[in-house]
Amino acid sequence: MNISFWELLSLDFMQRALLAAVFTGLAAPAVGTYLVQRRLSLMGDGIGHVAVTGVALGLITHTSPTWTAVVVATLGAVAIEVVRAKGHTNGDVALALMFYGGLAGGVLITGLGGQSTSLLQTYLFGSITTISPGDVWVTVALAAVVLAVCLGLSPQLFAVAHDPEYAQVAGLRVQAYNLAVAVLAAVSVTVAMRTVGLLLVSALMVVPVATAQQVSRSFRATLVAAMALGIGASVGGLLLAAYASFSANVAPGPTIVLLSLGGFVAAWPLGAWLRSRQRLRAPFAPGEPAAHEVAGHGEGHDHVHGEDCGHLAVEHGDHVDYVHEGHRHAPHGEHYDEH
Amino acid sequence: MHPPVSPVQLSGGTVAIGGRPILRGIDLTVTAGEFVALMGANGSGKTTLVRTITGLLPLTSGELRLFGTPLASYDEWSRIGFVPQRPGASSGVPTSVWEVVASGRLTRRRLLRPLSKADRAAIDHALEVVGLADRRHDGVTSLSGGQQQRVLIARALAGEPELYVLDEPTAGVDLPSQQALAEALGRLKAGGATVVLVAHELGPLAPLVDRAVVLRDGRVVHDGSPLADHEVHDPSFGESHSHHHHANESAPSARHDHAPHLDSPVDRT
């Protein structure tokens, strides 16, 4: 190849790919946050498998695979939601049924239509650089709808996912909102289909959220950070793959997912450290010990605790206990008490 | 102002879960401004009763009126503040105290409108009443059990309802938090709110209770003046298992728990 990296970026197909990456990176984690909140992280995967059948139907009927995928994925998502709502604890079984049925149906139908599976493969693992101008605008429009609903109805969707019974007593139509999330998930799966592919789509919905919640303490911060991480991963992954394509055959879909996972691996130790720090600094329950016990058993305590003494200071009622070697020392006049 | 209509009127209420009758022939009228404690042993139907009152469980027979309106046509949900039992499992995404309390304001917010000044003031006030204003930005899971229970009360409070329905607010809550809880409920009562709460034991809430309704095996066995905790578990109410074991007590598990298990996909509530 004789063109530079910057010339590559200015090509039409690359610009379309970037546009699709931006919108996919924003929309998928937005829906994903609600799925993770409801502990349905794998729902995106289940819908992705169902959408395979939709794509295959589009391929053999020579209609747009995007639209058939939207329809079939939406039906699958509604089916998962209905079985989950009616079947109480057996939502995972419903997901499993969709996984296998969707994938098997898709491969079977593609074969029946005499199509080679290599065409299906561009939908399974994404082929963002072959996206047509028409598909770009469909992707952008669907992603914009998903974003508008996810952000506009966020107070309601948050309340329904956080505590469905409370939301129902507050007069919210819980089932309608749950169905809405299922449909949004189906739409964003098909939006992300061309970018990362149906088999990897769930990663873009879940991994940025998992990364964001390592450091966030609120739902809103998680949502915003997940969207930022999502766009970073999808655009960054695409650019990385484009840059690497000068020397090797690098597929953008897996690059995006691996970059996203790399973010999680980087954030996880930070999250673990923050959590253990918070646990150590949690205030002790108020109340003095029954007996007055002086630290050091009369031999004195030659170390003076203070702001910078290096020992962990934890709130305990109206004072501070210094924690070291399994003891809690509270200043008391000239000595320290065991608390 | 609304005329002082009874917030809850349940007559002949019967509730079955998965075909099993749980509540039978319950008559319960709560008048405005009353502080009612629903008491009884585990499995006596207390929680089923509050879930019925809040419309979460359908009546098999009988009639429920909320603020004078039959349940089927009732839509003024902002007048009811529900405080469920503290969820055991946390949500999958970190959530701040403020966010949980703010969701209590949804009964008064229209779709797609940002929080108004009045909304923010009500949320701040609710956090102050339960004494958690300084923890508003902390994650809910970093709080103690009693503090989490107070967050749920603040959520109901933020909607400024007239009727509070609380399911076991003191269960598994340490004594200092129970006292903070009693203080918050005392302020609600002083403000003229109607309170219906489920309690296994009243503890620090005892001075607030105007009326006790004791359930046994899905029926009302006492309705009137508040009882001391030991009286609720009196053998004359037929409870075979309580905190007071007697030497001559026969098999303590003779009475089965009536809570149904909804595991199978064919079960319907």
From TrEMBL, chain B:
Q: ABC transporter domain: from which residue to which, for each copy?
A: 8-242
- What's one Pfam family here? ABC_tran
Instruction: Write out the ranges of the annotated region (Disordered).
Output: 223-269
For this protein, the record's PROSITE patterns field holds: ABC_TRANSPORTER_1, ABC_TRANSPORTER_2
Q: What is this protein called?
A: ABC transporter ATP-binding protein
Q: Which GO terms describe its molecular function?
A: ATP binding; ATP hydrolysis activity
Similarity comment: Belongs to the ABC transporter superfamily.
Write down the Gene3D superfamilies for this protein, in alphabetical order. P-loop containing nucleotide triphosphate hydrolases (3.40.50.300)
CDD domains associated with the record: ABC_Metallic_Cations (cd03235)
Keywords, A to Z? ATP-binding, Nucleotide-binding, Transport
Keyword Iron-sulfur among record annotations: no
Q: Which superkingdom does the taxonomy of this entry point to?
A: Bacteria
Q: Where is the composition biased (Basic and acidic residues)?
A: 223-236, 254-269
InterPro entries the record matches:
AAA+_ATPase, ABC_transporter-like_ATP-bd, ABC_transporter-like_CS, Metal_Ion_Import_ABC, P-loop_NTPase
